[in-house]
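Entry: Orotidine 5'-phosphate decarboxylase
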Amino acid sequence: VLRLSIKSNKGTANCMRIQVLHYIGLVVSVVASTFCCALSETFESQKDCSSSTQESLSETMSGFFGKLDARVESANSLLCIGLDPHMKEVFPEGWEDKSEEEKCDAAYTFCKTLIDATAPYAACYKPNAAFFEALGSNLGVATLERVIKSIPKFIPVLLDVKRGDIGSTASAYAEACYDIGADAVTLSPLMGWDSVSPFVTGKYSSKGAFVLCKTSNPGSNDILALELKSGETVYERIANLAGTWSSLADGTEETCTTPRLGLVVGATDPEALKRARQAAGPNVWILAPGVGAQGGDLLDAARAGLNAAGTGMLIPVSRGISKAPNPGEAALELKEKINQARNQVVSAEQAAVGEATEGIEPYQREFLEFSLAEGVLKFGSFVLKSGRTSPYFFNAGLFASGGALFKLGKAYAAAIMASSKLTNGKEVNFDVIFGPAYKGISLGAVVCAALYSDFGVDVGFAYDRKEAKDHGEGGKLVGASMENKRVLVIDDVITAGTAIRESHKMLSSIGANTVGVIIALDRAEKRSLDDPVSAVQAVARDLEIPVVSIASLPQLQAFLQKSPDYDDAILASVTEYRSQYGV
């Protein structure tokens, strides 16, 4: 808005001002006109008013899976819409007499109509290459390219091709897929990394692939469900390999900065979906076909396949949308149903964390805080002896100063006195604390001192040597006599339980009565996928004694939830780990 005030007594100056402002007005008019034309062109080329912004954002995302993450978040959708131009849908009255050009034009119109109706609700589009190749050798692939180019650029395109070959053939397949605009492909991985790498490395390192893992058809059990010598199924091995292969860059052992691979796991088999998720970890995307016509239950699939954040899984639907009287309304309804299932899964996870929060005690919080301060407890990515990748690691051997041992002893003592399994009112139900060599020696000493200092409880302390002493009084046992005494065994953690079982056997041989075990941290995770009990639970069951810990995995979750010093990603990784391996 230009304001012009003309005062009569200014004469010529006012005329000059009017002329200058007239030229300014012309310039503004031209700029505005140009802007409006550009704006009009933008709206013409992209119907969605926010598409240009989303396009620029999608270009900054790190590869296909970064683009997918961004789209899932912006659309609040996990719905993958299939573009499958079945001729009997495109031409219900028959297509045998149609020319290749007529079939291709009709297939394009069929897909474009679906895209226009469903774009606001799509996390991803999945055109099936076979239906386009069947249209004819001249125009079929060109029609597929037209369809892909009609999809808004900010919505990822997963081309369903299920290729599986090696060498130059695989490279040619990759070039054919990506030259027409696909962001990712589906692949058969049974020929190994050689058949996958051409699609996700080198000049295609920004692309992605979903490898067939446990497909939704009944016949998939013939091969993919076979059990290997390792005890895992073929599909579990594939799920494990997806993580390994994603870390490869151009065939080397260098680590990629972005994920490369996802899995195709049918929603028709929730148990397989759950086991594939456990094998692959929380960060691998899963394409889960089979909901609806094939009999897959949406909520069961969500419980089995989603990660703790309520994402990480795409639900593909084709004919359930294309055959609907109003495809847009059908897509919206499916999106909302998927989100309802997501919300139920996330709410259940949050409730589990909430239950843990209610159970954390002040001494447990203090223990976790100083364990982190001493570097004994760390967050990150740690490969355990079991082969699992844990988001945290605990090494009590790093309590290596007088102050740290003093605090550690107080934490053990507090846990003992808080346990109804080790006390009777204000009295403990043991006479001696036994510390197996070597870690148990220092632990037993500081805990006995803390019990006396903080609670006035005076108990004996004993430990063993790895080898019998051949001079002096000799023998392997040192300290208080344990014969006919009630003994509490102390250790830092229980991994397999071997040391505790050996101690129990030795104590029984000298007439001692083992009444319990006290440890610092209980990882509270099952020993294997086939064994639903933890190492701690197995010791308690086999030896028929209680095992008490200062803190366990649920308290660690609660600590992270309440602590402002750690971001949500750490809590999510610990929660996901517990959901996979926890007891």
